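Support request, please re-run this one:
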Amino acid sequence: MEKIDQIQKKRVAVIGYGGMGGWHTKYLLKSDVAELAGIWDIKEDRRALAAERGIFVYDSFDAVLADPTVDILTLAVPNELHMPMAVTAMEAGKNVISEKPVTMSSDDLSKMIDASVRTGKLFTTHQNRRWDCDYLMMKQVYASGMLGEVFGIESRVQGSRGIPGDWRGKKEHGGGMILDWGVHLIDQMLGIVYDRKVEKVYCRCDHITNYEVDDGFKLDLYFEKDLTARIEVGTSHFISLPRYYMTGENGSALIRDWTDDCRIVACKNWDEKNVVPVVTAAGLTKTMAPRDQETIAESSISRPESDVHDFYRNVCLAIDGKAEQIVTHAQLMRVMKIMEAAFRSDELGMPVVIDDEIC
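Re-run finished. Output below.
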């Protein structure tokens, strides 16, 4: 990242002062590269809350667009509003950051990308979970080759509180766990497996507490060269499986939860002598017997330093032509196409071949 003093500070207006809108304003108020110009929210109580906190509140969305000092609009509004508001903002001369999911279809995303190209304004999405430490560690393991040829990766987020009772439970607002959490986990998986294309997907959605949208899912991505990735989100799990698990021809890597380091067990010698069988209730097994310490090597990767505000630093540099934007249009479209294929697979009850070149 460039030195902070080389970044020309930008003024940002946040549209929507709910959960993520509040998150953005919090970070912008202490940013070293961006300044909060103010907020706009359609709800009077949200505008009043922002004013009580000393934040400037615009009179309308049009007033934000008319403010010549605003460089960037961050959209933290319901998902179905992302496309029309983003296109309008870019046509008004503003750069745009959209919260995820960027929008609800690849057709709408194409309109947003076209507007960016046509107006010359930056358009991107806040894929903040690219700064999650668990993801960064797994990305390091894969790129290092320490496990040999990787053939399986599992990524899971599981909780027990059901799907939230806000927009996430409504289809018209782009609710459901594929669009809420899946968009992050798919983006992460594509960041880990950077060197292979997805050939097909198979998805099964859960409807345990919500029948309008998925309240969980199991998505298998079949990459080139026989690598399969399982992405799973559950909202009715009282015992969670590990956050990440990766296995290759020479070892395995495990991250149990958000706060865990990455544990790695690699094979030093395949030819273990005198294997002691495991005694099970119904007999003996050498196949599943644990290895001794003479044939394996254990190591770990500690949680790295990570600063999610590097996202805004990159956006400010990219606007000035000093850096390429981190979250690209092609990456956004790739994730969107895979989510659409996941929905189609669940509807058909069968795997769906990905024939789009971008995937």
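Residues 4-126 form a domain with the Rossmann fold fold (CATH 3.40.50.720). The chain has a mean pLDDT of 93.
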